[in-house]
Amino acid sequence: MKACLDCFPCFLRQTLHLARLSNLEEQTQKKIVDFTGSLFTKIDMNSTSPEIAHFIHSNLKDYLKNDDPYAEIKATNVAKAQTLLPKISKILTDSSDKLLTAARLAIAGNVIDLGACLEYDMEKEIKSVVSAKFAIDDFELFRQDIQKAKSIIYLGDNTAEGVFDKIFIEQINKPVTYATREIPVINDITVDWAKKIGIDEVATVVSSGAKIPGTVPKFCSPEFRKKLENADLIISKGQGNYEALSDTDLPIYFFLKAKCQVIADHIGLKIGSYILMKNNKDNA
Amino acid sequence: MKACLDCFPCFLRQTLHLARLSNLEEQTQKKIVDFTGSLFTKIDMNSTSPEIAHFIHSNLKDYLKNDDPYAEIKATNVAKAQTLLPKISKILTDSSDKLLTAARLAIAGNVIDLGACLEYDMEKEIKSVVSAKFAIDDFELFRQDIQKAKSIIYLGDNTAEGVFDKIFIEQINKPVTYATREIPVINDITVDWAKKIGIDEVATVVSSGAKIPGTVPKFCSPEFRKKLENADLIISKGQGNYEALSDTDLPIYFFLKAKCQVIADHIGLKIGSYILMKNNKDNA
Questions:
Q1: pLDDT for residue A116
Q2: From A130, A245, B143, B211, which residue has the greatest number of CB atoms within 10 Å?
C-alpha cells in the first residue's frame, strides 16, 4: 500500500508526542516540529507509509540522540496490559469458543499503537471487541486454515500488544514463529521485549530483520523473507504490517483495528472498525 | 490565547485540503505540503493561532498565485446553507423562544469551518443544536444584557455561517454592526459575502480591518478597534475569534462549537461541546 499525503499531519502529531514524551521544553518541542517539517521535502511518495515513518523516526532518534525514545512508555504500557491478565483469563475461561475469543482479544491489543492513537482505554476496548460485530470477519476461514497449517508465522506489531498475542498463540496451540522488528522503532515490539513478555514460552521468537514499523518484505532479512515465502499461514497484526503486505499475495490473515482514516478508506470501512481479513480472498 | 504546537498538524491538514480544493496533481500536492513544512521554522510561538494561520495561508496564496483559493467552496457552502432556510424558518416559527432558538442556530452555523472541520452535516447539526445541552450556557445573562445594550457588535466567522447569523440578528431586532475580515482568509466571511447573503438588510456591515482569521484587536483598523472598545456587547462567533479575544476584558459573548482539542482543552470542555459563554463572567 502506497503512502498517502494524509499521513503527513499524523507524522507531525507523532513528532510532537515524542517531543513531549522526551520531556523537552516547549521551545525545543517547537524545534523538533520544525525539524520534521523540514524533512518532508526529502520524502519519496513511492514508498509505503512504514518506510516514511522509519525515515522520520530514525531522523528523530538521531536528533534526540536516543536509540529508543519510547523505552519508558513501552514498559509502562506492558505493565498496564499485564494488570488486565486476570480479567482476560476470566473472559477466556467463561468463553465457549476460546480460539475466537483469544483472536478477538489479540485485536483489542492492537489499540496500543502510539503511531496511530495517542490515547486508548484498554478495558473498554476489551469489553467492546469480545462481542463487537466485525466489519470484515473471516474467522471461520481462519479456523479451518489454521487447523491445516504446518508453518505459521505471527507478525507482531506494538510492544504491549504482545501481552495479548501471547494469549492468542496459546489458544492456537501449534508451533508458531513470532516475528518482531529488528530494532526499536516507535513503540513496536522487538525480540527482547517479546521475551520479557514471555512470548518465547509459546512461540519461536525471531527478528524479521525489518528496521521499519511494518514487515515490508524487501526490508526483511533474506532468512526471514524465505520464511515468509514458505509459510502456510501468516497472522499479521496491525496497520503497519497491513500497509507493508496488503499488495502481496502471501497467505495472510490481517488482524487489526482501523485506527486512522487512511487505512479505513483503503479497506473501504469506517474508522474504528475491527478487521479479521484473509488476504486475496477473492483470488483464492 | 497563545498558539499551541498541537495546531501544526492541523495547519498541514488545511494545506492538503487546500491543495486538493485547488485540483492540484498529487506531485504538486506533495510540493505544497513540503512548502508548509518548510514554513514552520519561521513561525513565532508568541503569537495567536489566527496570526500563524494567516502567515501560512498568505504564503499559500502566494504559492498558488490565488488571492481567494476558497472562493468556489464558499459559494457552494452558502448555496447549501440557503437550501436549509425553509427548514430553519419552520423551526423558528414552531419555537416558543425565538431568540434562544436563533442563538442556537447561529452556533449550528459555526460548523461550516474549513479551518477546523473538513466535513460536516449541517442538517444533523441543526437538529442537534436546537435541543442540545450546552456545556456552557450563559444565554439568560445574554438575554438580559442584549436588552440593555445600545451598541452591539457581531463578529462574523465563516462565510456560509453568515446565513445563520442573519437569522439570529433578525431576532435580536436591534441596531447591530456586523464585522467581517478585510480580505479572503481561509473560508472566512468578507464584506462582499456578507452583502451577498443579505446581512446588510439586518445590520450595518463593516470590515474589522483584520486580514487574519480572527479579530485580534492589534490587527484591526484603528476605527474598528475604537468601535470594539466602545461596544456595550460583542457577539463573537467561532474559534478564531475566541482565540483572538479570550485574553481581553471586552464585554463579549462567545458563540461557538469546540471543534478541536486545543480549544476544548483551553476552555476545559469535551470536543464537540456547544458554548454560549460570557467573557470574564467571574470578574464582572
A1: 61
A2: A245
Spatial separation of the C-alpha atoms in residues A200 and B234, rounded to whole Å: 66
DSSP string, B82-114: HHTHHHHHHHHHH-S-HHHHHHHHHHHGGG--T
Tell me what the pLDDT averaged over chain A comes to.
Answer: 93
Contact B37 A36 (CB under 8 A): yes
User: Considering the entire predicted model, what is its pTM?
Assistant: 0.89
Strands A274-278 and A136-137: parallel
Distance from C-alpha of A158 to C-alpha of B112, rounded to nearest angstrom: 37
Binary contact (A9, B5; C-beta < 8 A): no
Looking at the predicted structure, is the pLDDT value of residue B28 above 90? yes
Across the interface, whether the CB atoms of B33 and A26 are under 8 A apart is answered no
The sign one gets for the Cα dihedral A194, A196, A201, A205 is positive
Q: How close is the nearest chain B Cα to the Cα of A87, in Å?
A: 30
Residues of chain A neighbouring B43 (CB-CB closer than 8 A): 30
* Nearest-CB residue to A5 (from B9, B30, B40): B30
B235 grid coordinates: 457577539
* Residues of chain A under the 70 pLDDT cut: 113-119, 282-284
Q: pLDDT over 70 for what percent of chain B? A: 96
Q: Are B162 and B191 in contact (CB under 8 A)?
A: no
CA pair distance A228, A231, nearest whole angstrom: 5
The answer to whether the Cβ–Cβ distance between A39 and B40 falls below 8 Å is no
Q: Record the cell numbers describing residue B6, joined without a space.
A: 498541537
Closest CA to A186 of A166, A219, A220, A211: A211
- Asked whether B194 and B78 are in contact (CB, 8 A), the reply is no
As a whole number of angstroms, the distance between CA A137 and CA A268 comes to: 14
Q: CA Rg, chain B, in Å? A: 18
Predicted confidence (pLDDT) at residue B94 exceeds the cutoff of 80: yes
- Rounded CA-CA distance B146/A84 in Å is 55
Beta bridge partners, A236, equal A155, A254
**CB atoms closer than 10 angstroms to residue A257:** 28
Query: What is the pLDDT, as a whole number, of residue B183?
Result: 97
| CB contacts, 8 Å: B12 with chain A | 8-9, 12
Closest partner residue to A33 (CB to CB) among B8, B13, B27 is B8
ipTM: 0.88
pLDDT at B164 > cutoff 90: yes
Question: Is a pLDDT exceeding 60 seen at residue B32?
Answer: yes
DSSP letters along B225-281, please? HHHHHH-SEEEEEHHHHHHHHTTS-S-EEEEEE--SHHHHHHHT--TT-EEEEETTG
Count interface pairs A-B at CB distance under 8 A: 62
